[in-house]
Specification:
The protein contains 3 helices and no strands.
Length: 72
């Protein structure tokens, strides 16, 4: 049982890490990319560029949320 707990804790720390917002933002970006891919709207190059931009934007939004000044 200790092995399963350690295994689960490793994967949680590996995937989520210190900030769960970054992990959620990346998953949302990948799900949106998958939806566009399944709709067969764009070609491979456009999907690659859109996916990369989506992950970068998702990370930037998550970072902006973390560094904004706290309200008193």
């Amino acid at each position: 049982m200790k092995f399963l707990k350690s295994f689960g804790q490793f994967w949680y720390d590996f995937l989520i890490g210190d900030d769960w917002k970054i992990a959620v933002a990346v998953v949302i970006a990948l799900v949106a990319l998958f939806a566009v891919m399944k709709a067969d709207v764009l070609g491979d190059t456009a999907l690659t560029l859109l996916g990369g931009a989506g992950i970068v934007v998702a990370f930037a939004i998550s970072l902006a949320i973390d560094v904004r000044p706290k309200r008193r």
